[in-house]
Structure formats: structure tokens, C-alpha cells
């Protein structure tokens, strides 16, 4: 993999959507509902969100317009380059100058933490997908910051407990060296300790790293039963390919992807990924409705949607429905509607925002199929089991979210 390059992408680009003028446009600031998609548009995390999240947002607007054609909606998008300062600068300008009402996606924990405080101070809504750190829904939770997809607890609690119960009681971690990776290791180690299992160590690599040889050798030397990868995107793809190159795929250690997206499997190839397990909030092949969205998305993006992209669709559509129901894009009024309205779409059925602003829904433990078991392109997962929302989410009694203290008073 070539070294990660810095990209001059501060410019905000517009994704025009032709919509009819709304007769009561005065109800909306600037006469339009303006939504910003900010994420990694061309770097190591771009396949799982990136331009595909913009496609998903456009499809949500299209479906909203089918029901309510007279409300004007505009989608803007920008690349934060996985840099918190750039992400913060972009979002601050969107809110202060460009009249953006809501920001969605983000897809990088360090950037998300920077944006969270800005949105809180500006009283603006931000809806996160593919943001792993538990801080966003924990100590740094905010009335205006909503978690739509997952956090690291969702991703590791069920899978780690399941593997420990099967005798995989010693772990070593290879993790991304930023907020997401470090938080995922911390959460995993807490779950291991609860199950009286051991963490034998962790090594952290920079974002966009290309050579994992020394990290893999440390993992091998640890003699841990499990080598867990707390990274994603190009990083996971590269380290798994090198896992095979080092011959570790025929050893006794079990590789576990604590976060893996469909596009990661596609990039590394099923022969490399076969047998890998991960937890996901959504998969395009779950049922007829998800497959229909997958085919619709594929026609525009030439790839099946990932869970973060499906979450962006759902979040944007729900925000638009709430705004229409409120008759305004004023933040407090929209938030009131969003908390009152269940999410009922192909992404989640009957899901609601709980007091810590997490959308509570089921998850799935999935395993990558063997090449000979593939029936159609992108048909990469077998669903091993469903993890109920009750089991997937940290109990509110254990949450450190300050909002819970406010609601209790």
C-alpha cells in the first residue's frame, strides 16, 4: 500500500438535488434544509464511508421527496482528511457561514471528538456513523450528538465474550494509534478481564501504515490464542494480507477483526478473509428489503453499501422526517421529534434514541464465507447469530454520559 498522502481537500463540494420550492419556506433557515456529510473522501477509510455516504444521503433525500416534494434540501460534503483540526475547521465554517443545519457520518473518532464540542457549543445536530470511541456516547456525550451505527462496546462485547467462552482466553492487539484504536483496546481489555481472560499486550500503528511486519512478529511471539485487529479500511486489508505472507494463517493463532466492513473483505479478497468474524449493525444481504437497497445503491456507486453508508441513509431520512414534522429546522424542535419518532426502515426496525443519544438496535455476528460458498458478487457474509439490542449496548446504569444525570434530576 502506498504511503498515505496529504490531500488538499478543504473545499466544500455540492451535491445538487433538484427539489421543488416549499410554499412555507420561511419555516426553514435560508429557505432550505442543509445537510453536511463530512468524512474521509479519498484516504484509508474512504471505501467504507467516503463518496458512498454522499450517495446514501442523496438516496435518502430522494425518498423523502417522494413523500414530501415541496421542501428544499441541499447536501454538501467535504473531506476532513482524518485530521481533527481540518474537520473542526470545516464544520465550524458550515455552521457559522454556510448555514448547514445538520452534519452526518464523520467516520473517524478523533475528528468526531473535535466536532462534538463544536456542535454542542453551536447547538447543532451531528449524527455519527462509523465512529467507534465510546467517549462520544459516554463522558463526552452531548444533547446534540447522536450515535446511529455503533461504538466499540457494541463491536467487541458480544464477540469477545463468545470467543472467551470457547477457550480463547489470551489476546494480543494490533491497533490503530488514534482515538478509535486505543479506545477499542481499552474496551476489549475490560471485557476480557470480566471473563477472567488475559490481554498479553498491544501494539499501535499510525493511520495509513504500510508495513506490519514488526507488529505481526510481536503478536506471534506473544503466543496469544487470539490476535485481534483494532483497525479498519486499508489498514486491516494490508495487515491481513501480510498475515498470510508471514504464514500466520496456518498457525494456531486465531485472527479476529474487531471492526471490518464489507469493502475491506472485497479489497483483501475472500481467500484472505475467509473465516474472519466480526460484528456489524447491518448487512446488505440480510433480507429482501436490504437487498433491494443494495442493488439500488450499487447502480450508482458500483459497490454494495457498507453498514456506515446504510446508517447515513437512515440518519438523513429520519432527520428530514423529524424536520418536516416539526415544521422547522430549529435544533431543539427537531431533536424533540427525533426522540419521539421510532426509526422504522430497512436499516433498523422500531429503533429509538435512548437517553444517552444512542440509537438502540440489533447487531449481527458474521463470518466471511469460503470462496466456493459465494453465490453472488459481494455475498461475503454468513450471519452466525443476531445479538439483541439488550445485549449489544452498554447498560445505562454503567454509562458515564452526563445527560443521564440531567434527565434524572
UniProtKB/TrEMBL annotation:
Similarity section: Belongs to the leucine-binding protein family.
Domain Leucine-binding protein stretches: 33-369
Organism: Bradyrhizobium betae
SUPFAM superfamilies (UniProt xref): Periplasmic binding protein-like I
InterPro entries for the chain: BCAA_transport (IPR051010), Leu-bd (IPR028081), Peripla_BP_I (IPR028082)
GO BP annotations, alphabetical order: amino acid transport
UniProt-listed Gene3D superfamilies: 3.40.50.2300
Protein name: ABC transporter substrate-binding protein
Statement: the UniProt record of this protein carries the keyword Transport: yes
Assigned keywords, A-Z: Amino-acid transport, Signal, Transport
Coiled coil stretches, renumbered: none
Amino acid at each position: 500500500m502506498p504511503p498515505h498522502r496529504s490531500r488538499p481537500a478543504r473545499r466544500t463540494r455540492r451535491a445538487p438535488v433538484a427539489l421543488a420550492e416549499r410554499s412555507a419556506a420561511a419555516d426553514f433557515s435560508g429557505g432550505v434544509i442543509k445537510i453536511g456529510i463530512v468524512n474521509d473522501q479519498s484516504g484509508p477509510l474512504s471505501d467504507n464511508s467516503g463518496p458512498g455516504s454522499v450517495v446514501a444521503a442523496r438516496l435518502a433525500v430522494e425518498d423523502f421527496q417522494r413523500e414530501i416534494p415541496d421542501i428544499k434540501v441541499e447536501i454538501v460534503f467535504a473531506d476532513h482528511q482524518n485530521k481533527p483540526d481540518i474537520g473542526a475547521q470545516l464544520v465550524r465554517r458550515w455552521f457559522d457561514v454556510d448555514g448547514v443545519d445538520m452534519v452526518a457520518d464523520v467516520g473517524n473518532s478523533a475528528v468526531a471528538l473535535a466536532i462534538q464540542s463544536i456542535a454542542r457549543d453551536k447547538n447543532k445536530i451531528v449524527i455519527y456513523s462509523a465512529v467507534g470511541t465510546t467517549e462520544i456516547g459516554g463522558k463526552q456525550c452531548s444533547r446534540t450528538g447522536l450515535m446511529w451505527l455503533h461504538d466499540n462496546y457494541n463491536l467487541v462485547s458480544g464477540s469477545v465474550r463468545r470467543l472467551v467462552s470457547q477457550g480463547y482466553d489470551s489476546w494480543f492487539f494490533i491497533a490503530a494509534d488514534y482515538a478509535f484504536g486505543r479506545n477499542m483496546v481499552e474496551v476489549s481489555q475490560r471485557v476480557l478481564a470480566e471473563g477472567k481472560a488475559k490481554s498479553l499486550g498491544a501494539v499501535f500503528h499510525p493511520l495509513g501504515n504500510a508495513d506490519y511486519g514488526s507488529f505481526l512478529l510481536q503478536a506471534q511471539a506473544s503466543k496469544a490464542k487470539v490476535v485481534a485487529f483494532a483497525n479498519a479500511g486499508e489498514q486491516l486489508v494490508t495487515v491481513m494480507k501480510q498475515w498470510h505472507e508471514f504464514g500466520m494463517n496456518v498457525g494456531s493463532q486465531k485472527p479476529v477483526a474487531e471492526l471490518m466492513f464489507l469493502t475491506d473483505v472485497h479489497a483483501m479478497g475472500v481467500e484472505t478473509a475467509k473465516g474472519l468474524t466480526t460484528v456489524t449493525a447491518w448487512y446488505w444481504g440480510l433480507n429482501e428489503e436490504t437487498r433491494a437497497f443494495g442493488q439500488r445503491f450499487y447502480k450508482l456507486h458500483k459497490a454494495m453499501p457498507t453498514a456506515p453508508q446504510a446508517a447515513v441513509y437512515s440518519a438523513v431520512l429520519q432527520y428530514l422526517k423529524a424536520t418536516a414534522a416539526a415544521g422547522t429546522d430549529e435544533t431543539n424542535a427537531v431533536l424533540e421529534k427525533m426522540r419521539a419518532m421510532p426509526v422504522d426502515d430497512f436499516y433498523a426496525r422500531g429503533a429509538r434514541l435512548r437517553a444517552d443519544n444512542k440509537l438502540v438496535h440489533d447487531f449481527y455476528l458474521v463470518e466471511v464465507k469460503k470462496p466456493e460458498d459465494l453465490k453472488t458478487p459481494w455475498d461475503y457474509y454468513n450471519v452466525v447469530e443476531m445479538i439483541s439490542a439488550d445485549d449489544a449496548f452498554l447498560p445505562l446504569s454503567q454509562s458515564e454520559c452526563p445527560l443521564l444525570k440531567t434527565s434524572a434530576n
